[in-house]
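One example given next:
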Amino acid sequence: MRFVIVTGMSGGGKRTALKMLEDMGFYCVDNLPVLLLEKFMEVIAMPNREIGKVALGLDVRADQEFPNVERIVESLVANGYKIEILFMEASDETLVRRYKESRRLHPLANFEGGRVADGISKEREILRGMKKRADYVIDTSNLLTRELKEELDRIFLKNESYNSLMIHVISFGFKNGIPSDADLVFDVRFLPNPFYIEELKHMTGNDAPVRDYVMSFEQSGQFLDKLSDLLQFLIPHYVTEGKYQLVVAIGCTGGQHRSVTLANALYERLRDKGNYGLAITHRDVPTVK
């Protein structure tokens, strides 16, 4: 039997992950009281049951003895149960924004006007041990729902090796500011700007004419080669240091042409080259509705 505990930060995407696991054939139970965990395992693992995959969602709640989870998990593993832990993570900034948008109270914030940030800080402290022993950590700060599904498919359907590093490539325009969560920032304003070519001005790096123009310059290919080599060197070291998210930001003036082209090219270079997650966002390209 494959048994997965889904836990992590409130607002980090646990329920979304459980729904996706359910679609993959997992028998899912959400928000089971911690003290019932051992009894649940005994019942679900009884002989002659047809359930082969189980996902259990565990939330931090003010009335739960959540610190007991680590002790219980250790006890279950010692008794021969194989347990995987999926930890859903997100940045404090992202979590605060999600709570403000949903207008919900954080479960650990004081009920009398407590701040969401206080609840997040308290929750991180409680979950520190679980995150450290987690088999998979997925940071959803910059993930689309589709990209989260791809990550879960990679782990639980394709059974690929996983090191919990999510690489997010972002194109942006310097005139709109550098992405606040960027780890590595690269400036491609040294390349000729398609904005000054009338037939390309209103296109983006997602369009073939702009892509072909930007990549027609020798320095574009040289930059891409050197950047790819740098990341291939850095990625294993980031993994060794336990980094969960690497945001690579590529910027030009407006974030429409050069940065988009190079971000797309870098994404293709990194795609299927390692057991890390990979996503791409064009921050300053208008979304067509």
Observations:
- The CA atoms of residues 173 and 255 lie 4 Å apart.
- Residues 218-240 form the longest helix (23 residues).
